[in-house]
Amino acid sequence: MASSQVHRSLKEKQRQEREELILKVAQDVFLERGYHETSMDEIASRVGIAKGTVYLHFPGKDDLVIAIFERDMQEILSQMDACLDCQTSPQARLEALLHFMYAGLFSKRTQLLSSIYHSADRQRLFAEKGGCLRDLWERVAQRVAQILEEGKARGDFDTTIPTSIMTSTFLSLISPKSYERLLAEGQFVPEDIVAHTGKIFFRGIQAKS
Amino acid sequence: MASSQVHRSLKEKQRQEREELILKVAQDVFLERGYHETSMDEIASRVGIAKGTVYLHFPGKDDLVIAIFERDMQEILSQMDACLDCQTSPQARLEALLHFMYAGLFSKRTQLLSSIYHSADRQRLFAEKGGCLRDLWERVAQRVAQILEEGKARGDFDTTIPTSIMTSTFLSLISPKSYERLLAEGQFVPEDIVAHTGKIFFRGIQAKS
Amino acid sequence: MASSQVHRSLKEKQRQEREELILKVAQDVFLERGYHETSMDEIASRVGIAKGTVYLHFPGKDDLVIAIFERDMQEILSQMDACLDCQTSPQARLEALLHFMYAGLFSKRTQLLSSIYHSADRQRLFAEKGGCLRDLWERVAQRVAQILEEGKARGDFDTTIPTSIMTSTFLSLISPKSYERLLAEGQFVPEDIVAHTGKIFFRGIQAKS
Amino acid sequence: MASSQVHRSLKEKQRQEREELILKVAQDVFLERGYHETSMDEIASRVGIAKGTVYLHFPGKDDLVIAIFERDMQEILSQMDACLDCQTSPQARLEALLHFMYAGLFSKRTQLLSSIYHSADRQRLFAEKGGCLRDLWERVAQRVAQILEEGKARGDFDTTIPTSIMTSTFLSLISPKSYERLLAEGQFVPEDIVAHTGKIFFRGIQAKS
DNA sequence: AATGAATGAGGTTTCATTCAT
DNA sequence: CATGAATGAAACCTCATTCAT
């Protein structure tokens, strides 16, 4: 029946909305307190639902972090795809990515992403449950590498530096560790930091004239 | 009595050796499993002593991590002091530091240090018990900044890039996140990675000719 | 909805019943084994629930004893208020109180109360968490003093003995130490003991004729 | 050999002195902190010896309390014997005992004695290891009873009140619970309290004229 | 479908006791 | 003898997960 269909899809929509909400709240709490210091109770009560309800959406706490990680990675990939489609120079695209990670909408999530990716605790977690996550991260690395290769081909970047090391260095910059400290000093706005950091990197890899 | 004195110092020496051993083992386990996934039981049994014995050396689990962190930071500072005394160029000194962190004796510890320093969990830990640790890290940052300033003064480094951002970027490179991946690929030995990474950084900050 | 309301209150009722049960069992075990010799596991398993469930009702072991103490003190106070309302003589009222403590429903609890109130361990406990408990005990003492004063005013009791010492002596009688021994001898029923003890006390404080 | 004998007895004397010291210190600490809150470490370090040395004198913590209790009881018994030998009236002898317990040299120990004797923890302790202690206490009670009987025979005390209840009531007065409160009020010196308390008791049991 | 009370494994920490030195 | 480092049992408490309602 149509009404049932509508009903079903309405429920489904609500379900997805709540799932989104859980992810968002969980992200915030994980970021504030850290993974282990955050209890499922805290997440549930901040969302405004019962603890058991969280388990209707995610089989366990692990899966919750993995889901967050996955969602963010997907979003980064989307953004990167958008960048790839841009007709701008490789450097401009990577600068856009940096900006997206730090100064753009993603700035907050970048911290959690980094915090999750580091920390030995979660390495094991990913090994067990999140096999696909390794792939996601690989794909991000591949896209960066791809852009860098393109830049090399165009004669923009130094071909004597292995692309994989360039990639690795670039990704290292996406590390909110010292970024926070810089912001805390209060001398810079995010845009400045991204600009200067990018400048160092791109001058570092630019083809010798 | 001399014999008593000797006796005393022997005991003391054994004590310190054991303490060292605990720190070393704890470091390994924390690195493998992460802070929360590691139990005091695990550490003790790996050292080959009883759980209670660990508590004779460190008042709690927290203090154990803090002790590890502190010891490593002190060692880094020592190394940096040694670098500062070198009569080599600023760049050479920073390169030596990078090498020490990644390719040298410190390579393994760097990972834990980074893993500890990230992760929201421990931020709070440090706020409570390890007030001095923040200082230690600050001191490392200051030494790096100092060398960078010196390089600027000598006309080696670009004076249009703020020193704090240079420092921050340099410290970002000390981040074993992607380093591990590079090693895993198997194409490079640590020395290569350090060399190339340094190259990118120093070309990035070098004074325009 | 009414059903929801009923539901809620049913749950709440069950909750309170369980809480009562925990208190009752805990009281027994504390009485048998003493505070420190009693583990939360023991209490839980005697109630027939899991250890964690006890913590849903009481935040800690301390709070459990305090809750027991508080509940009993409140009941004593209620009883004393009832006594105060009686139109009988001061002596009759105090005799009723003695009877309530030893021979009445409260006989069992009196022991724990006394056992808790003594013992250096718990003095410190009360200082920390049970600030209000000191007050409760003080209030009991005050009521007794009040009745004694009234008796003095009526010319029943000896005005040359300070009320505070009378009070103190009276409360000393509420001390199951030797009471147990008397019962164990088997020559007396509680009523006898209370009667004779009261007789000694009241003759001891009666106004000289 | 004589010298060996002397040596032996000297050592033995030192041993006993230390044992006394341990008992005295342990008594203080138990009184301050309570049995369970006191660690063997605390006792040993206050005495100024090593923890292991305490175990050369007492097989365990339990035995330490029992020894304290036993020693005190013996002392009380001695005092009572001294009282019994006095040619004063039964009442005077009991008053002397009360004074000894509260206002005399024994005042401090009385608290621990009471604190030990109450508290369920130790009831079990005595049942296991200190079978003889029950006897000691019984003997004290018997002496009191004996004096009371004598008083009855002389026509001093009321023969309608069972001696065992008189005894029990008398012993109840030896209960520092409320005594402390009285002292804390600051209105009385120990002598006053003992005097008034005794007055109540003896008037309570005196033979009707 | 949502709830949240109940569970119990697992972690940290203490401390009485032992025993090699 | 005296020592005190080492032990390990046992306690308290947390919290991810389940399941009856």
From TrEMBL, chains A, B, C, D:
Family annotation (Gene3D superfamilies): Homeodomain-like, Tetracycline Repressor, domain 2
One Gene Ontology molecular-function label: DNA-binding transcription factor activity
Positions of the DNA-binding region: 39-58
Ranges of residues in domain HTH tetR-type: 16-76
Superkingdom in the source lineage: Bacteria
Entries under InterPro entries matching the protein: DNA-bd_HTH_TetR-type_CS (IPR023772), Homeodomain-like_sf (IPR009057), HTH-type_TetR-like_transc_reg (IPR050109), HTH_TetR (IPR001647), Tet_transcr_reg_TetR-rel_C_sf (IPR036271)
UniProt entry keywords in alphabetical sequence: DNA-binding, Repressor, Transcription, Transcription regulation
One Pfam family per UniProt: TetR_N
GO biological process: negative regulation of DNA-templated transcription
Protein name per Swiss-Prot or TrEMBL: HTH tetR-type domain-containing protein
